[in-house]
Amino acid sequence: MGSGAFTLALVLALSTCVTPVERKCQLSGLWRNEQDSLMEISALDDDGGFQGEYLTRVTLAGGCTRISPLRGAQQQPSEVAWPTFAFTIWWNTFSNATTAFAGQCFVDASGREMLSTMWMLREAVGSLEEDWKATRVGRNVFTRKRTPKGKILHSLSPPCEDAALPVL
Amino acid sequence: MGSGAFTLALVLALSTCVTPVERKCQLSGLWRNEQDSLMEISALDDDGGFQGEYLTRVTLAGGCTRISPLRGAQQQPSEVAWPTFAFTIWWNTFSNATTAFAGQCFVDASGREMLSTMWMLREAVGSLEEDWKATRVGRNVFTRKRTPKGKILHSLSPPCEDAALPVL
Amino acid sequence: MGSGAFTLALVLALSTCVTPVERKCQLSGLWRNEQDSLMEISALDDDGGFQGEYLTRVTLAGGCTRISPLRGAQQQPSEVAWPTFAFTIWWNTFSNATTAFAGQCFVDASGREMLSTMWMLREAVGSLEEDWKATRVGRNVFTRKRTPKGKILHSLSPPCEDAALPVL
Amino acid sequence: MGSGAFTLALVLALSTCVTPVERKCQLSGLWRNEQDSLMEISALDDDGGFQGEYLTRVTLAGGCTRISPLRGAQQQPSEVAWPTFAFTIWWNTFSNATTAFAGQCFVDASGREMLSTMWMLREAVGSLEEDWKATRVGRNVFTRKRTPKGKILHSLSPPCEDAALPVL
């Protein structure tokens, strides 16, 4: 076998090795969405559960916001390259509303990770008659924010005295 | 004024004091929705967090289901009579899909509790091009199921061998 | 052929005629939903298009409402027993919001028709930054209201002077 | 005061008058969304009603698509710079599903028009028991496509023999 054929075989073998069909998408870390809201997701538990923090930039009524805790779960944590997930946020210091996100983690052709999510924002209403109007729906795309990890959201959170209505 | 009249006035005054305008709605316990799916919510943590289990009666593809864990949070746990809440369900043993609910706990005029919720069901898709179609939306109303408490869902879950697609 | 066999054949033939597998669901007519809002849908065009009128009982901000025109379409009008449909409502005299419904017409086991719908209510916002919060979502089930047909909604509409915010 | 200063003052005054804070957003014309689907909206009626055509690039089941008619309405057509609107699409030649969009027309800081919309896609199901899973939800942003106007969608539509399931 000539050296040319050997080189070709080697290149083919290597390219097979180094070209994974799908790069696995990792939920943990710091993420930012189109509205410049920030989200930090902790490492995942064995069962796919995770915790984190959310710093919104937008509110229903304007006003300042605080870092809020989130809790959620990823499906089939070890087997799937692009897992689906869902989480909920507590806005408890400044709102009687609640938000749930559901989405999937993707890696695009250039290797960039993104979280494609949809959310529901549920506001409290004072009676069953007003229940019909209490749920808003929308979409958010998060991309990974490259920064030193750690409790970074705390350093980014502005001092805040005002009360504010529900947020995303 | 006679002692009878005085007693009557006292009773009236007290009953006014001890009759709250709104009876507080409690998330914990066993609930059933229109599709006969069952949900059991644990006692709440100090911060409003809760865990539970969900036994669905419906699936996207038919097939049998298993009890699935859920995790969520209630807003402002101690201050609000009719709190909002959100939770997510792991269907991990039989699906790469995930579900998030958001809703509010109400007590109607007859004292009956109900959970008015909306949900999103996110399916896994194989590429970003298919992302647009991955999210379904719907509504569920849960009423309290009066049964002996405990790990009752486990006794209600049928034996199950089949794989099944995402569920609600 | 004996008379027994003849009778059997006759019974089979008749039962085939009088037992439709699915009774066809008709969109046209007067409908009422859980909130007591009323809707009247005209006869359908050849291509499935229809017009109608909507009288809501609920508004985002309270206040009185007026009969509003609606316009929509039914899919595959002649071939399907339980067609899907969608329509939009103009709230133009009292709101800069708009509503779209999508649903399916069913006939239940007892022959009762119902429209199972979901809707989106889009409010106007003043800037792109507020766009995220502009869409609400919900569900409505309509049942047929048995009343003399015609321009009945007009006789049911209360006199109305106030401006009111978007409605369903 | 010299004539130069007077002219300047006049120009300033006029420019204040003739520079609207918000450029009016026009629905009519040709639009394209993130998935490269195309939409052509006709001129509006006096009451805000419009017709048009939609050429989707994505379907639930894959397969080819055809140009589909749409019909809708814009709120308060003459008074609002950034009107809300809603419309429905007939997929009648290739699907028993239906789609409703609701959104708002914006002009961004650089004068570029966009339609921010959310949609529901309702599939037909065979029974009330399956009704819960029939509605999908998503978001689309359309930007104006600069091309010669007219029946341009017809020249862009590929020849198509296959049947295809519901689309967006």
UniProtKB/TrEMBL annotation, chains A, B, C, D:
Localization (cell): Secreted
Main location (coarse class): secreted
Keyword check for Glycoprotein: yes
UniProt keyword annotation of Signal present: yes
Signal peptide: 1-23
Keywords, comma-separated and alphabetical: Biotin, Disulfide bond, Glycoprotein, Secreted, Signal
MF (Gene Ontology): biotin binding
Disulphide bonds in the chain: C25-C105
Gene3D superfamilies: Avidin-like
InterPro entries from the UniProt entry: Avidin, Avidin-like_CS, Avidin-like_sf, Avidin/str, Avidin/Streptavidin-rel
Annotated Pfam families: Avidin
Entry GO CC: extracellular region
Function comment: Forms a strong non-covalent specific complex with biotin.
Family: Belongs to the avidin/streptavidin family.
PANTHER family hit by this protein: AVID PROTEIN-RELATED, AVIDIN-RELATED
Subunit note: Homotetramer.
Name of the molecule in the record: Avidin
Organism the protein comes from: Bambusicola thoracicus
Taxonomic lineage of the native organism: Eukaryota, Metazoa, Chordata, Craniata, Vertebrata
